[in-house]
Amino acid sequence: MSDWWRGAIVYQIYPRSFQDSNGDGIGDLNGITRRLDHVASLGADAIWLSPIFTSPMKDMGYDVSDYTDIDPLFGTLAEFDALLARAHDLGLKVIIDQVISHSSDKHPWFVESRTSRDNPKADWYVWADPNPDGTPPNNWPSVFGGPAWEWEPRRRQYYLHNFLIEQPDLNMHNPEVQDALLETMRFWLARGVDGFRLDTVNYYFHDQDLRSNPPNPDGSQEMATDTYGMQDHIYSKNRPENLAFLERLRALTDEFDDRMMVGEVGDGGQRAIDLMAAYTKGTKRLHMCYSFEMLGPDFSAGHFRRVIEGFLNGAPDGWPSWSFSNHDVPRHVTRWATHAEDQDALAKQTVALLMSFEGTIGIYQGEELGLPETEMEYHELTDPPGLRFWPEQKGRDGCRTPMVWQNDAPHAGFTTGTPWLPVKVPQIARAVDLQDGETGSVLAAYRAMIGFRKSRPSLVEGRTEFIDCKPPLLAFQRIADGDALTCVFNLGTSPTSVSVTSDARLAHNQFASVRNGQLKLGPNGFAFLEHDDASSPVK
Ligand code: TEU
Ligand code: CA
What we know:
CATH topology of the largest domain: TIM Barrel
Number of strands: 19
Number of domains: 2
Bound molecules: 1-O-alpha-D-glucopyranosyl-D-fructose, calcium ion
Oligomer: single chain
Largest sheet: 8 strands, parallel, barrel
CATH superfamily of the largest domain: Glycosidases
Shape: globular
CATH architecture of the largest domain: Alpha-Beta Barrel
CATH class of the largest domain: Alpha Beta
Helix content: 25-40%
């Protein structure tokens, strides 16, 4: 059987915000099961569920206190089995999110580890003595602000947390920790999940000598704090020891048929390419890596070309995974809004762009409705980095507000109770029921574009060849055996045109026309061109 995940479309569900089924204001597994028809109607191949495991929810589930159970807010294991069965009936694979770089501070392993220096779990987390003056052992910063070290008076030592204080880092250098985590993953594989999204896969290992990261003079403010971007993270993460562990993970996954692992690599530039190349090399490590490169502000033709060519040339055995939105970044129609007068036109153009890429494609719940980022007030925030760095950083609540199903129902049909995050007017105006069956809607454009991708082998499995074009035009060919398409996008805000061969025809487009050897594209225009042979029709 061919690898189902190559070229697949993965729909990300943020369980807290998808559908509440019991009126407590928080989305749950039964709600997801009820709404899977919507996901299937898009033409998605798989769902990725953000974490559903037992958790104190300090980081909304990315702080796990039991790796082999479902949080009661979300449901039960039996309800998970029902979700899995329904998804499989609909032809949807199910990917779950494994957050094994750190656990919750309420995980029994950590509760025990922090009590003393000689308990059985003493070495399961990353503990270090203070400097003689009492300060933390090195300069490693937490992604969410402040030092990555927290003092534990009982041990008179610091523990490492790359994220929240409530997310202590597991010590992967300890083989017992590796074994324990692998067993929790075996539990889910045996239950029938189709794969794993590996949270923060490049944070699994730290430098055992605890060397300070060197400064990074070109550092940009990648994350919540300046200090984070001002360091080169060569010791706190991205360690070569990780490769052998990824091989253990792959060996486990390969004991089961057709499973897939995608690693989240939150770096950029050449480092991201090198990490992805190493992590996906051959068939011994991960199946693919999830790229952050298209989750930022840059919407230029040059950026998309650099990132895609960088990956294809720099990680030739690898397989990329591209997304424009997720639960950690502002929604892309808001992020890229200056490139459109009409955000719906931008949403319809960007889905065409995304679906034209070589790789596996991620879409995030609500983007198929063209949802903009929700504007939040301080008192409505729940996300720790938002609360901490307001107003310079607004946190991640704005992309996590509930799905909007029904325009005239309370909270757009998400809940009969009080939703955990507010449901606001700009989102409600884009509810599923308003767009369903409307030919001009963003939802219709998503279905049409996904259908178009699936009807064209060149888009799903073809190779990519860029065509030199003047920005803001982006153009490339996708070429498979017996199928070739030329994809052209106007990423600017004015109309533009380019010469094409006289036999060029539009196979799918928005704001495009072909006449007298000219392809004209309006702002937010795109064209999929074909002609009588596999050469480029763009001159
Ligand atoms: O994110 C990893 C990561 O690097 C994020 O910090 C991301 O860059 C940031 O949120 C952007 O603002 C993963 C999860 O996706 C995220 O939700 C978790 O908070 C984080 O890991 C810790 O588990
Ligand atoms: Ca609920």
